C-alpha cells in the first residue's frame, strides 16, 4: 500500500519529456481547485532537474486558476549558468495558456558571514495535537457538503501551536504557527535536496494567506471571503529535512486594496532555514470576485 509520503513525493517528482520540458500530475486535494503549493513544488523540481546546484530563491506569480482534471506542462528556460549562480525561468501551462510563472536562482554552496534573528519559542511539537485531531473536534461546524474534503487527511503531519477554527472565525492577531513533517522518512531516489525544498514550498502555501484574514474575523471556509494566492517568494538559507519536525512561524503586516501581505519563517533545530512571503487576494463576498 502506498503511503501518504510516497504519494506526495511521486506527485511532486515531475516527468521529464525533453531537456527543458516536464509534465506534472495533479491531485484533487481541495476538490476542483488546484492547490498553489503543488505548482510551486513541481516548478522547483522541474527547474532543479536542469542544474546540479541547490535552489536558494524562487519568485512566482499565480496567473490563472489551475485545473485538477488534467496534467501541467512545465517549460524551463535556462537564462544563465555563471560561475556561482544559475538562473531559470519556469512557465506552467494548461489548456495552451500560462497559469503560473516563476524565476528561480540556484547557487553552489559556499561559506560566508552568518547571522539570524532569535528563534521563536513555542511548545514542543510532540506535546501538541495534530491538525486531524482538531478537525475531528470541530466536525459539527463543518457543512455536510464539505466534510469529505475537509476531513481528508493532508499528506503532511501538522501540529498547530494553537488551532484556529476556520468555520467559526473570530478576530485574532495575525501570528500563527505550526509544526510539520512528512509521515515517514524520505528514502531512496526521492531523498534529494530539491525534493525536501519542494515539499517545504508545497506546504508554505497551505495556511499562509489565512494570517491576513485573522484580524478581520473572516474566513475562506465559511464563504465570507474570496481568497487566492497572487504571488509567492521563497528563500532557502540552509539545508533541512522535511521528514524531521520543522516550525512554520507566520504573520501578516498589512491588508489593503483587497490584498493581504503575509510572511513566514521555517525553523529547524534553532536555525532559520527558509523565509517566505506572499501577497494574497482577499475580497469579501459582497464585492465583485473578478480576478
TrEMBL record:
Taxonomic superkingdom: Bacteria
Gene3D superfamilies documented for this protein: Acyl-CoA thioesterase, double hotdog domain (2.40.160.210)
Keywords: Hydrolase
Domain Acyl-CoA thioesterase-like N-terminal HotDog: 31-106
Gene Ontology process terms (BP): acyl-CoA metabolic process; fatty acid catabolic process
Tagged with keyword DNA damage: no
Gene Ontology CC entries for this record: cytosol
Domain Acyl-CoA thioesterase 2 C-terminal, first and last residues per copy: 156-279
Annotated signal sequence range: none
UniProt GO molecular function: fatty acyl-CoA hydrolase activity
InterPro entries reported for this sequence: Acyl-CoA_hotdog (IPR042171), Acyl_CoA_thio (IPR003703), HotDog_dom_sf (IPR029069), TesB_ACOT8-like_N (IPR049449), TesB_C (IPR025652)
Family named by the database record: Belongs to the C/M/P thioester hydrolase family.
Protein name: Acyl-CoA thioesterase II
Species for this entry: Acinetobacter defluvii
Amino acid at each position: 500500500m502506498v503511503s501518504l509520503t510516497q504519494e506526495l513525493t511521486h506527485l511532486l517528482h515531475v516527468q521529464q519529456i525533453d531537456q527543458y520540458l516536464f509534465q506534472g500530475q495533479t491531485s484533487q486535494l481541495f476538490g476542483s481547485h488546484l492547490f498553489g503549493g503543488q505548482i510551486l513544488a513541481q516548478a522547483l523540481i522541474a527547474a532543479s532537474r536542469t542544474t546540479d546546484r541547490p535552489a536558494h530563491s524562487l519568485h512566482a506569480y499565480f496567473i490563472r486558476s489551475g485545473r485538477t482534471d488534467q496534467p501541467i506542462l512545465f517549460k524551463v528556460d535556462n537564462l544563465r549558468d555563471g560561475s556561482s549562480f544559475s538562473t531559470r525561468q519556469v512557465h506552467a501551462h494548461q489548456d495552451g495558456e500560462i497559469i503560473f510563472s516563476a524565476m528561480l536562482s540556484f547557487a553552489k554552496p559556499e561559506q560566508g558571514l552568518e547571522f539570524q534573528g532569535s528563534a521563536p519559542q513555542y511548545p514542543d511539537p510532540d506535546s501538541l495535537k495534530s491538525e486531524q485531531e482538531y478537525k475531528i473536534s470541530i466536525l459539527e461546524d463543518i457543512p455536510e457538503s464539505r466534510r469529505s474534503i475537509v476531513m481528508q487527511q493532508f499528506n503532511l503531519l501538522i501540529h498547530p501551536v494553537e488551532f484556529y477554527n476556520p468555520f467559526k472565525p473570530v478576530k485574532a492577531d495575525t501570528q500563527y504557527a505550526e509544526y510539520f513533517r512528512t509521515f515517514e522518512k524520505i528514502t531512496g531516489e526521492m531523498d534529494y535536496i530539491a525534493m525536501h525544498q519542494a515539499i517545504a514550498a508545497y506546504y508554505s502555501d497551505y495556511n499562509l494567506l489565512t494570517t491576513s484574514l485573522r484580524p478581520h474575523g473572516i474566513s475562506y471556509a465559511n464563504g465570507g471571503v474570496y481568497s487566492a494566492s497572487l504571488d509567492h517568494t521563497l528563500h532557502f538559507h540552509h539545508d533541512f529535512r522535511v521528514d524531521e519536525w520543522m516550525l512554520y512561524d507566520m504573520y501578516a503586516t498589512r491588508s489593503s486594496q483587497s490584498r493581504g501581505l503575509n510572511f513566514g519563517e521555517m525553523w529547524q533545530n534553532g536555525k532559520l532555514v527558509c523565509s517566505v512571503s506572499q501577497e494574497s487576494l482577499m475580497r469579501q463576498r459582497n464585492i465583485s470576485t473578478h480576478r
